[in-house]
Amino acid sequence: MSHGSVLASSPSAIIVGVDTHKYVHVAVAIDLLGTRLAHCSVSADRVGYAELVAWARTLGAIEAFGIEGTGSYGVGLASFVRRQALRVVEVSHCDRRKRRNNGKSDTMDAETAARSVLAGIATAVPKAADGAAEMVRQIKVARDTAVKARSAAIITLKALIVNAPGELREALEPLTDRKLIDRCARLLPGVIDDTTASTKHALRALATRWLTLSTEIAVHDAALDAITQVAAPTLRAAFGIGADSAAEMMIVAGDNPTRVRSEAAFAKLCGSCPIPASSGLTNRHRLFRGGHRQANAALYRIVTVRMRWHQPTIDYVTRRTAEGLSKRDIIR
């Protein structure tokens, strides 16, 4: 650990701001009057975390840690500090305009993090990332990348068929997607000495990849179904909420959902809270365009399913339509 000297006498309470990186974390301590006291850098591992907390305690009673990147490089430090019964605040990255005006360094970023906590600008409680929600998030990452790769495989396969030799193209083009995949997976290119053989080789490789990824996705789906059924049985019991939608809701709430102060705060976190959009004689609202977009998409899927199959929702849509609202406004 390297550190700078204390610039002022240590007060009774301090705030520590931390700029996190892959290998090294840089921290700055300030007092409750905003005076910068000291700075240090530690390794980004458990030994470094312990050194950082011990260093901070030598400066005074710790009011809070303001940590950048609590969902990435700072997740380990945030978890360690939380286990020490210390308050952790999630700090967003520094405003780019301020960086242009004042310059940038790790120490300056750490000090900005501390001052954001002191000023009350940063108040968010980071996700705990140590329970079922984190398990779901990790599996969803693997599943979503597999789905994306599977889509790329069949798109590439169909693009190859467009430019395939005539006889092969005419045999494959009329087939539906699943029959096309099965047919291509059974192709026998033999010796690759012409364009027909090379096309068969490529098509078989892509079809085999698609089938392998489909099997992987099914395994992920089974894992998500099992975890969400146990961790969120009430959510899963609601009409129109499957494993994938429940997983997105769990991810956005985190393993410590009490960090979300109210239903209104959760709505804004999901990008589904109303924002005034009135002007003149027009009095209306629109949806917040920020928030967790995957959670917003999950809510949209749930609503569309309920609008089609859930009788109370169908009755609501009918009543609101009679009142003159459009389908878009009803969904909002």
Account of the 3D structure:
The chain has 3 domains: 2-119, Nucleotidyltransferase, domain 5; 132-232; 260-331, no CATH class. The protein contains 14 helices and 8 strands. It has helices at residues 46-59, 75-83, 96-102, 106-119, 132-162, 166-172, 177-185, 195-231, 233-237, 243-253, 263-269, 293-309, 311-322, 327-331; strands at residues 2-3, 13-19, 24-31, 36-43, 61-68, 88-91, 274-276, 285-287. The longest helix has 37 residues, at 195-231. The protein is globular.
Question: How is the secondary structure organized here?
Answer:
Layout: E1 2-3, E2 13-19, E3 24-31, E4 36-43, H1 46-59, E5 61-68, H2 75-83, E6 88-91, H3 96-102, H4 106-119, H5 132-162, H6 166-172, H7 177-185, H8 195-231, H9 233-237, H10 243-253, H11 263-269, E7 274-276, E8 285-287, H12 293-309, H13 311-322, H14 327-331
Parallel strand pairs: 2-5, 5-6
Antiparallel strand pairs: 1-4, 2-3, 3-4, 7-8
